[in-house]
Amino acid sequence: MISLFGYGKTTKAIAKKIKNCLIFDDHFTDESVDEYGNKLLPPSKFSTCKGTIQIPSPGFPLNHKLIKQSTNLVSEYDFYEKDMPFTIWISGTNGKTTTTQMCEHLLKNTGAISGGNIGEPLANLDKKKPIWILESSSFTLHYTKSATPGMYLLLPIKPDHLSWHGSFKKYEEAKLSPLKRMKEGSIAVVPKKYENYPTKAKIITYEDESDLAITFGIDIKKVAFKTPFLQDAILAMSADKILFDKINYEKINSFKTDIHKLEEFKDSHGRVWVNDTKGTNVDATIEALKRYKNEEILIILGGDDKGVSLDPLFATLKPLHVKIFAIGSNTDKLVKLAHTINKNIEACYELEIAMELIQKEHTTKTIALLSPAAASLDQFSSYAERGELFKKLALR
């Protein structure tokens, strides 16, 4: 018998495949059964209904009583470890999704498919495919104890999800944990600061995208992406070079970046708007600001900052020509920080109010940027909902 914690996308996919699972979720108040014969139970029933294996949804809280009561806790990765073909795991703080998508784009003709934190849960991936490319969140990596990648592509690690992990050190440890289990013959491409991290894998390190391009003989001038996507592209190309000794500029340049990530568009007045709602942490927003550092910026910040210090963000904002429009649960904190660096800020609390004010100030000489440096769940169902509302209000 298998117990699943949380009734999310990952656990639903497992339950559908296996059936007859016990699923515990805080939203369940009474016992019931889903369409596949799985029992839906409140957490209070777990003490008498323990399964032989417990699998949490990736973001299931660490301090939840179900986690503390578990006797055989494994991750989705551990559970499907024996079914995995060759796997490329991709992690880091920012750029995981884009790097995973680019990697799949480059390797698609080999039969490679992607999943994990992006797209399909492992339960739905075709086991006959030769390569799985898995976007790997810190949540999944924290719960993973035995599964290991054939190749690990690690983007830089910056503070994020600190309220979940408890500290940056623990967050960083989760990201680095696959290295400890990797076997001889496996390869890890990691930031240079981790070059001495204990692992049996062959380590290839990099300082930045230019350094990485030199290592693999990639002509960076032939890659048609700007910061921050350039690093993602070079990392994906590195995987292609390692596995198949190929550098395909035409293929990588044909890749189209996802919506909601530095998505530029113009309104009927020719004004530029940038939807970077996927900028859910400080480092992502800093990268967005680097792109527009020579422009006059009207930036929307705010939401759930996940307990991360915003000081590095405001250090970046200080020399820029920028006005801030604060929304979300950390509005008051943003106002105080803006005053410390003498930046003009509007305490809007809600996106609709921020957009009303920006519509009055935005011209063809300014950049209106939504890059919140915060998660969206304090006010929205997802970052995508936040981004779609931004676009709707921009183009009204």
Instruction: Write down the CATH topology of the largest domain.
Output: UDP-N-acetylmuramoyl-L-alanine:D-glutamate ligase
Mean pLDDT rating: 95
Radius of gyration, in angstroms, nearest whole number: 22 Å
Cα shape: globular
CATH-wise, what's the superfamily of the largest domain?
A: Mur-like, catalytic domain
Strand content: 15-25%
Number of helices: 15
Report on the structure:
There is one protein chain. By secondary structure, the chain is an alpha/beta fold. The chain has three domains: 2-73; 78-253, Mur-like, catalytic domain (UDP-N-acetylmuramoyl-L-alanine:D-glutamate ligase), CATH 3.40.1190.10; 263-394, Protein-Tyrosine Phosphatase, Chain A (Alpha-Beta Complex), CATH 3.90.190.20. 34% of the residues lie in helices and 19% in strands. The protein contains 15 helices and 17 strands. It has helices at 9-18, 65-69, 76-79, 96-107, 138-143, 162-165, 168-181, 209-215, 229-244, 249-253, 282-291, 311-317, 331-340, 351-361, 383-394; strands at residues 2-5, 22-24, 32-33, 39-41, 53-56, 86-91, 113-116, 131-135, 151-154, 187-191, 202-206, 263-266, 272-275, 296-301, 322-327, 345-349, 366-370. The strands form three sheets. The protein has a six-stranded parallel sheet, with helices on both faces. Strands 12-13-17-14-15-16 form a six-stranded mixed sheet, sandwiched between helices. A five-stranded mixed sheet has the order 3-4-2-1-5, with no helix packed on it. The longest helix has 16 residues, at 229-244. The relative contact order is 0.09.
